């Protein structure tokens, strides 16, 4: 029960990213600063965690051996994940972005053939190319139905162009996040713990964020004080607190696949928390019955997908969330 409660709290803090990204957009802030400032603020806090654990030098030695792949896949996993999410907030409310973001489960399944997995045979272990989980994709169709229902209401209030600009970047992010993270797992080869890998990826993605920030200075100017403060809140809430809570929750149930699946499924609560947060903080209009139905279907699909995927799964490295 403790792990589930912690998972729900993690989803609550993860939702801050969707809420405050929308808030910054509504107050005139640029998506460029919403993205780059979050990672600038995350860097020192994550560095402190790694230093306290005495793992900084081993991390730097590993990064030095393959620095270009660290930069490449960190830029994909963090840069091409979060920048599009911030951009999408320019065109749609946070709850729609949070709902559409659940597509990442489907994207992760579709990426399976790009990676190899270790299987046990009569002659020992061997690596085979991953296969798309057909049963998992069937359940994923439930999530797609829920996402589709979310879009119906927006299609009535947004032009086709704005609807595509809201949904398209989220789909890009949904593929970039698991792609970059899985590639980095291969690069790390089990040599680093989760905190080292997250800090290493944040550090290696700095060229991406610095270039984006420089572009922002010359195109939209410096961020306002309000946007700086809200970006700091997102960095601490979603980037640090939520990640630590989620890791702790999954560590509590490590080895029990059914309980682990339940904890992972709590992340579907991001959608509900985002809705409530926008209603309270942004005075956003209440979603329609159709949209509520879509969100419910997404959460049910997330839970079923998680339970199925863990029923016969091998131990996997945990995701860092949003």
From TrEMBL:
Reading the lineage from the top rank, the first entry is Bacteria
Q: Name one Pfam family in it.
A: EmrE
Instruction: Alphabetically list the UniProt keywords.
Output: Membrane, Transmembrane, Transmembrane helix
Q: Which residues cross the membrane?
A: 41-60, 67-90, 96-116, 136-152, 158-177, 198-218, 230-249, 261-283
InterPro entries associated with the record: EmrE
UniProt protein name: Multidrug resistance efflux transporter family protein
Q: What is the lineage of its organism?
A: Bacteria, Bacillati, Bacillota, Bacilli, Bacillales
């Amino acid at each position: 029960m403790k792990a589930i409660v912690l998972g729900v709290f993690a989803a609550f803090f993860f939702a801050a990213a969707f809420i405050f990204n929308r808030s910054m957009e509504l107050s005139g802030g640029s998506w460029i600063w919403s993205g780059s400032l979050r990672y600038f603020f995350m860097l020192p806090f994550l560095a402190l965690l790694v230093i306290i654990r005495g793992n900084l030098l081993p991390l730097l030695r590993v990064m030095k051996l393959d620095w270009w792949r660290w930069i490449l896949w960190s830029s994909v996993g963090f840069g091409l994940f979060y920048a599009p999410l911030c951009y999408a907030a320019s065109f749609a409310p946070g709850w729609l972005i949070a709902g559409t973001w659940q597509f990442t489960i489907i994207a992760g399944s579709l990426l399976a053939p790009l990676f190899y997995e270790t299987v046990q045979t009569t002659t020992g272990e061997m690596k085979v190319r991953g296969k798309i989980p057909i049963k998992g994709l069937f359940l994923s169709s439930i999530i797609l139905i829920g996402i589709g229902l979310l879009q119906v209401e927006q299609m009535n209030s947004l032009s086709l162009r704005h609807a595509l600009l809201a949904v398209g970047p989220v789909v890009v992010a949904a593929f970039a996040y698991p792609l970059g993270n899985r590639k980095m797992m291969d690069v790390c080869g089990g040599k680093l713990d989760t905190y080292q890998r997250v800090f290493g990826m944040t550090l290696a993605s700095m060229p991406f964020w610095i270039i984006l920030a420089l572009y922002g200075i010359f195109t939209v100017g410096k961020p306002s004080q309000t946007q700086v403060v809200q970006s700091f809140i997102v960095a601490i809430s979603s980037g640090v607190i939520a990640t630590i809570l989620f890791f702790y929750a999954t560590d509590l149930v490590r080895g029990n696949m059914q309980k682990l699946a339940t904890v992972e499924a709590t992340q579907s609560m991001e959608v509900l928390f985002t809705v409530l947060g926008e209603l309270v903080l942004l005075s956003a209009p209440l979603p329609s019955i159709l949209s509520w139905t879509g969100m419910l279907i997404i959460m049910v699909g997330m839970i079923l997908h998680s339970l199925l995927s863990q029923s016969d799964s091998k131990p996997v490295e945990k995701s860092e969330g949003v």
